[in-house]
Amino acid sequence: MPRTALLPFLLLLACSVPATAGSFAGTSAGASSGGSSASSGSTSGDDKVVLQARDDAAGFVASDGRIRGARLEAALRLLRERSDRARDASDMQLARAILTQ
């Protein structure tokens, strides 16, 4: 399984809201597959943004949210654009999900 295919699953694991976790995974997977039907490169570009935010996410988690990097901000924005469940998750939940990549 390619690393980028694990993104929805890993985000699912990191979210602490079990009742909505299944919907979150389905929503993000549906958005990425629908948006990439014309070009397989578009989803991998989105996932690359999230993967590149790992260092910023680590700093954010380690500083208890006091350090916010530009790459983390871009990844948070992207995740929330792709999924209603990500919009409901806290920045800390999403940062931890990014770290599970």
UniProtKB/TrEMBL annotation:
Residues 26-44 have a biased composition (Low complexity). It comes from the Bacteria. Residues 1-21 form the signal peptide. Keywords: Signal. It holds the Pfam family DUF2388. The keyword Nuclease does not apply. Residues 26-47 are annotated as: Disordered. This is DUF2388 domain-containing protein. It comes from Luteimonas endophytica. The lineage of its organism: Bacteria, Pseudomonadati, Pseudomonadota, Gammaproteobacteria, Lysobacterales.
